[in-house]
Amino acid sequence: MKKSIELKNYLVLDEAKIRESLNEEDGLKKLSLLSDKADEWKERFTCQKDRSALENFLLYRTAGAFGLYQKDADDADITPPALEALKERLYALPCVQAVKVGKENGVDEKDRIFHVYLGNGKDIWLESDTANSLMGDLGKFFKIILTREWKSRWWPEETYIKKYDLDPDRRKQNQKIDDVYYKPFRYFYFSELISSGQIVDMLENDMERECYAQIEERAKLTHTPANMILVPYWHNAARGFKLKTYETRQTINDRLDLTMQDFQEMEKETDAGNALNVDDRRREELKNAGCRKGLEKFTAESVKFLMNQKELLFPAIPVFKGAAEQKDIQGILERSRAINRTLKG
């Protein structure tokens, strides 16, 4: 299977959900001046070859945040080509006897789930995930540029909140941003900055322009089979939020290098004869991260399996040192360069 397949082409928009959102005060109704026709929004949210990869990526994230995709066809890492590519990798391993994916494990199981039966009679549970996430660094990039452009950290009030006539008070309640409300509009605003060319006009130096070019390249690679991986049960959700590395306690934030460090630290504890401790502690951490059903399916043995087969199951791991650890433009640039090198190699 080609490593460069664009997985977003396999997502399925639900026209009924689009029509419903056009009638919701917190939904597409806020954008109805652009269009009040469901078929036109469906076309806009469909991945297009003549757009930049970043614009396609942000429109995908907008549609996802509005909840406009059909159930079970709403995420790039559960599309048929992604799941098939991961299944092929597993069957290429001599130790794997059989693999059941998604609903083959029961009607209530998640589509991203892989139940792997090993030749030694044991079985493990894994799930699909995106190896190197883009949204975190992309959000940082826009925040840096727009904070400077508006000379204020309150740029959201002056940009998408005002433009789309959103409720500004949702931003101030308990000093906490109501991100479920704002997120789709923020993503859509970013996509408009790209399509109009405004974001390019805001860039002030060669480093910012190179950073933008590297992020664009990264967007082309993010939702391809080459950037799809398998992780232990529930780690798709947890590693992008609260989960920290097992021993060194660094927040993983969807970083592949920290994910592998986390696995290495759990493997070390397992090899010391403490697999049950790893099971109990990590299941508790997953529970605290909001994961509930099926926690028993996480096992130290699944981590050990992934580490034993990492050369075949994972892309090259990007290494972030020095400037690449920073949150500024140079940091985003260096991380993007490193990730692009691993996925194009």
Description of the molecule:
By secondary structure, the chain is α+β, with helices and mostly antiparallel strands. The chain has 16 helices and 4 strands. The chain has a 4-stranded antiparallel β-sheet. A hairpin with a 4-residue loop joins strand 2 (113-118) and strand 3 (123-130). It is globular and about 60 Å long.
Beta-strand percent range: 5-15%
Largest sheet: 4 strands, antiparallel
Rounded Rg? 21 Å
Order of helices and strands: HHHHEEEHHHHHHEHHHHHH
Q: Kindly name the structural category.
A: alpha+beta
Strand order of the largest sheet: 1-2-3-4
Low-pLDDT residue intervals, each spanning 5 or more residues: none
**How many helical elements?**
16
Mean pLDDT: 94
End-to-end separation: 16 Å
Shape: globular
Helical fraction equals: 40-55%
Quaternary status of these chains?
Answer: single chain
Number of strands: 4
